[in-house]
Specification:
Number of helices: 2
Number of domains: 1
Strand order of the largest sheet: 4-3-2-1-5
Strand content: 25-35%
Order of helices and strands: EEHEEEH
Distance between the termini: 23 Å
Shape: globular
Radius of gyration: 13 Å
Number of strands: 5
Helix content: 10-25%
């Protein structure tokens, strides 16, 4: 697990429109949160940590049967920002 509630995190992988976004981690996503983002039942491995975030995440709804905007993100797709990493540096990291 990379992130924890209250962390600011940088999205570094996943669906391309989300990469480079800086989000705040709100809480661990429940099964109900995740299922609410999908148009039909969909299995997500519970080996993956999933977090509710404060920013809308575009979802690849053309490939996965989900809503086009969700408010959760996978832990593996983010890195927490620490006090030593300025926002400008984080954006350079995301671009590079």
């Amino acid at each position: 697990m990379n992130c924890k509630p209250g962390d600011m995190a940088l999205v570094i992988r996943g669906f391309k429109p989300n990469i480079g976004k800086i989000v705040t981690i709100i809480r661990k996503a429940t099964d109900e949160d995740i299922l609410a983002g999908f148009n039909e039942p969909f299995l997500i491995s519970r080996d993956w940590e999933v977090w509710m975030v404060d920013q809308p995440m575009q979802a690849n709804h053309e490939v996965v049967p989900c809503k086009p905007i969700v408010y959760f993100q996978f832990d593996q797709h983010m890195i927490p920002l620490n006090a030593d990493l300025e926002e400008e540096d984080a954006l350079l990291y995301a671009d590079g």
